[in-house]
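Today's session is about reading a structure prediction critically. Students often jump straight to the picture, but the first step is always the sequence itself: look for stretches that repeat, for charged clusters, for runs of hydrophobic residues. Only then move on to the predicted structure, which in these notes is written as discrete structure tokens rather than atom positions. Here is the chain we will use throughout the hour.
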Amino acid sequence: MNEERRTARYSAVAATIPVIVGIVLSGSRTGMLCAAIVLAVRFSGAVRRRKYLRQSVPLLALLLLAGLYLLKKDSADGRLLVWRCSLEMIIDKPLFGHGPGGFTAEYMNYQADYFRTHPDSPYAQLADSVHHPFNEYLLAAVDYGCLGLLVLIVSGAAIVRRYRRAAGGDPIIRAAGSCLLAIGIFAIFSYPFFYPFTWAMALFSLWIVFGCSWLSRLLPRFLAIGAAATLCVFALRDMRNQYAWQRADRMATVGDPANALPLYEKSYPKLVRDRHFLYNYAYVLNEAGEYAESLAIAEACSERWADYHVELLRGDAAFKLERYDEAERHFAQAARMCPSRFMPLYKLVTIYQATERKNKAYDLAKRILAKEVKIPSATVTAIRHEMRRMVDTTNTIQ
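Below is the predicted structure for this chain, in token form.
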């Protein structure tokens, strides 16, 4: 766009328009906000030179934020709940945080505690299983405490300082700065570092911003060779483990789950730190009738992953072992984690029936019938139909 040739400028605009249209069509509010801010920074000089544009910027910014909020209001409100519970996690361990993976291991328990103390919260219908706080800075504070967040802030300040010194009129460095700005803004409202592409672009942009003669010649080559070799070793090992797991899962899905258990047992020592493998293994054990072992593996999974489905699995295994008090705790926890779901309440009704607590079963069945349906499904319809039949039968007897 800085080129004097008109064809070059038109080509730049032609390349930019499809990107912006794609972001809008994707429905990504954060993507739209990033695009608007990066474009505003890119054309800040032209804005400053024109008084009417300079005066309209605050109004346009407010309209943009309001429009993006109203575009998916429920989703935005749901994130407020996630941020609130995340702040509670930071308050509990402010200095060093909950450790790597601490958010995944603990967050849903905090969400359950929130709904236990706020049963009539307007967030109840919006809450669901959460595996990221939708804010990379908040995630750093939860996992590594205020010290980790401080390191992140100091690093960001160093990047900004270096960019200001190096940018000048160099369009390549300015482009790298725009990339880092977009990533930094996106990280406030989403989880860009979940994707390897973001890491690649961030490192590439940092290389450009911090590049100097010796750095650009030697260090990147050594880093690239070392990183590639390391990644190949880990990737090949992970591929082998994932392939073995896939074979076991396929056998459990299309055949008898019991026949797949030896394959799971063989993979267990290699994938014992993978929470998804632990959940899958516990589920297959449950399907194969190995309820005690299923419960033990699910317990190990819950130490790494506080999750709605894990609580349901723990409750189901405990119920089949006739450990009704334990099963009730797990189903109640699952109900608090995701108050809009029907399955945990239905499972609680079955426990009350099995333990001859007919009044509690009747009261909860009426609650299920009065409950608002968030997402209609065949399962929800079947649960409501069964609860209606139970309530009607009880009323007839009475």
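Discussion point for the tutorial: The first helix runs from residue 6 to 26.
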